[in-house]
Design goal:
By secondary structure, this protein is α+β, with helices and mostly antiparallel strands. It folds into two domains: 113 residues, Creatine Amidinohydrolase, Chain A, domain 1, CATH 3.40.350; 228 residues, Alpha-Beta Complex (Creatine Amidinohydrolase). 28% of the residues lie in helices and 25% in strands. The chain contains eight helices and 18 strands. It has a six-stranded mixed β-sheet. A hairpin with a 2-residue loop joins strand 16 and strand 17. The protein is elongated, with a radius of gyration of 23 Å.
């Protein structure tokens, strides 16, 4: 905070709060806010009816329950003399910020990322272990898919998505964040919502799924083909596989994030699919499935030990097919460490 010139950090709903305190606030219309002055003790302002859910941590923060007849924004404003700069979380409800503005009318407001990014991007050993455990659980589900344990032909995308979701929970996740299942032409939409489309023999099926396990996220993408793939599609997948492998290898400490993106994009472009790769190569991951650092052109941030991120290039041909291949990778002093190791080939299934 001192380095960023921030006088007070205000953390409400979102992942910064459990990162700092271990408590995840419900997204209620009642204000919960951790108030962290640069010089002084942190205070968690919380509705009294929610206070029993908090594990109190003396020496980390004080608890300040507020009554239904109190104005919680006034409580927050009263904890700190009018600050010069206040950093607020990206996911704070606008209503509370709007109510705070006239009380601190000379305060400049900044995003909490100026304080929190350096902390949350660089994972410690325990966080990497948690990401690894979540990734291993997702791998087990992907192996079930590759092994033919999740029937595809004749089922709807939605049914397969529900099946994958149930398996993620059975493997230890507490929450499923997404389970994309896209067949044939639907796979050309990177964030396709699984629907009533019935999966047929002779087509590619893209699956991208992940959830939260003990506070940290998994995220994996694997494609399978029902029956032998046509030559054009198989050759495109080999390009994708090579691009993903090159980008993982490029994820070394000190390498700018944009150079990892370039490593994948160059191979795909050289093969004539440049315009078919329509998104960034990756995103950071931790307590949120998408967080900094982002692996994208224009981000010169050098990778540091403990940065965890996805590597997920894709090729999409509208109206026909799409494909994506994704692992989570951690930058370490000894080189990139993938947290997913399930088969990267285009696995062929018969049902």
């Amino acid at each position: 905070m001192a380095e960023a010139g921030v006088d007070v950090l205000l953390v409400s709903v979102g992942r910064d709060l459990p990162y700092l305190t271990g408590y995840e606030a419900m997204p209620l219309e009642r204000l919960t806010m951790l108030v962290v002055p640069r010089d002084g003790e942190a205070t968690m302002v919380i509705p009294r009816l929610e206070a029993p859910r908090v594990v109190e941590r003396p020496g980390v923060f004080e608890l300040r329950p507020w009554e239904e007849t109190e104005d919680p924004v006034e409580v927050v404003a009263g904890l700190v003399e009018r600050p010069g700069v206040a950093a607020v979380g990206d996911t704070m409800w606008a209503r509370f910020l709007v109510e705070l503005l006239p009380r601190w009318d000379r305060t400049r407001f900044a995003r909490s990322t100026v304080v929190m990014n350096a902390l949350r991007m660089r994972k410690d050993a325990a966080e990497i272990d948690a990401l690894g455990a979540a990734g291993a659980a997702a791998d087990r589900v992907a192996r079930q898919l590759h092994g033919g344990e999740i029937p595809l032909v004749g089922r709807t995308e939605a049914a397969v998505s529900a099946d994958i979701s149930a398996r993620l929970l059975a493997e230890g996740h507490q929450r499923v964040n997404f389970a994309i299942v896209a067949a044939g032409e639907n796979a050309a939409s990177p964030h396709h919502h699984a629907g009533e489309r019935v999966i047929r023999a002779g087509e590619i099926v893209l699956t991208d799924f992940g959830g939260t396990m003990d506070g940290y996220c998994s995220d994996i993408t694997r494609c399978v083909h029902v029956g032998e793939p046509p030559t054009e599609l198989a050759e495109a997948y080999e390009v994708l596989h090579e691009a993903q492998r090159a980008a993982v290898a490029a994820g070394t400490v000190g390498t700018p994030c944009q150079d990892v993106d370039r490593a994948a994009r160059r191979i795909i472009a050289d093969a004539g699919f440049g315009e078919r790769f329509v998104h960034r190569t990756g995103h950071g991951i931790g307590m949120e499935e998408h967080e900094d650092p982002y692996i994208v052109e224009g981000n010169p941030l050098p990778l540091e030990p403990g940065h965890a991120f996805s590597v997920e290039p894709g090729i999409y041909v509208a109206g026909r097919w799409g494909m994506r291949l994704e692992d989570i990778v951690v930058a370490t002093p000894s080189g990139p460490r993938p947290l997913n190791d399930v088969d990267h080939r285009l696995v062929v299934l018969d049902r």
